[in-house]
Amino acid sequence: MTNNEFPISKPYLKTKSLFPENQETPISFIERDSVDHPLFYRRNHFSYPRLSHHNYWLPINGAIKKPKIFSLKEIQQLPAKTIKVVLECSGNKRKFFKPPVFGEQWGNGAISQGYWKGVPLRILIEKTELKDDAKEVIVVGYDFGKNPGIDGIHHFARSLPLEKALHPDTIIAYEYNQKPIPFKHGYPLRLIVPGWYAMASVKWIQQIIVTDSKFDGPFQSMEYVYYPYKDSNHDSAPVTIMNVNSTIQKPHNGQILDSGKHMIKGIAWTGMGTIQMLEVSTDNGQTWSKAAIKKDHHKGYGWVSWFYEWSAFKKGEYTILSKATDSYNRSQPMSPVWNQKGYGYNGVDCIRVKVE
Question: Which stretch of DSSP H or E encloses residue 145?
Answer without folding.
Answer: strand 136-147
